[in-house]
């Protein structure tokens, strides 16, 4: 999985609301059947925060939840629309009707 893929996964699961690292990885596992390695997950969180796409909320004990920013929602929507367009084109090329 590439770095950009892990960032898209993180943004996607945060679209459902704020989460801390462990909960983010659990949601990714539910979605994909795989967990991100700690370096991939926390690297993605660091890059997304640096880009202003997520923000850290007040710590809850040892947990540090993060949430999407408005810019993060925009970037995620754009990325998902591009992915859907690509997936639909690929399915049509295979002769499969996109659902």
Task: Describe this structure in a few short sentences.
Helices cover 62% and strands 6% of the residues. The protein is mainly alpha-helical. A two-stranded antiparallel sheet has the order 1-2.
Task: Give structural notes.
The chain contains four helices and two strands. The chain is mostly helical and about 100 residues long. A two-stranded antiparallel sheet has the order 1-2. Helix 1 (about 5-15) crosses helix 2 (about 20-30) and helix 1 (about 5-15) packs across helix 3 (about 40-50). It starts with a helix and ends in a 6-residue tail after the last helix. The model has no long low-confidence stretch (mean pLDDT about 90).
| Multimer state | single chain
Question: Strand portion, in percent?
Answer: 5-15%
Outline the biggest β-sheet: 2 strands, antiparallel
DSSP helix count?
4
Entry keywords:
two-stranded antiparallel ribbon, mainly alpha, 4 helices, 99 residues
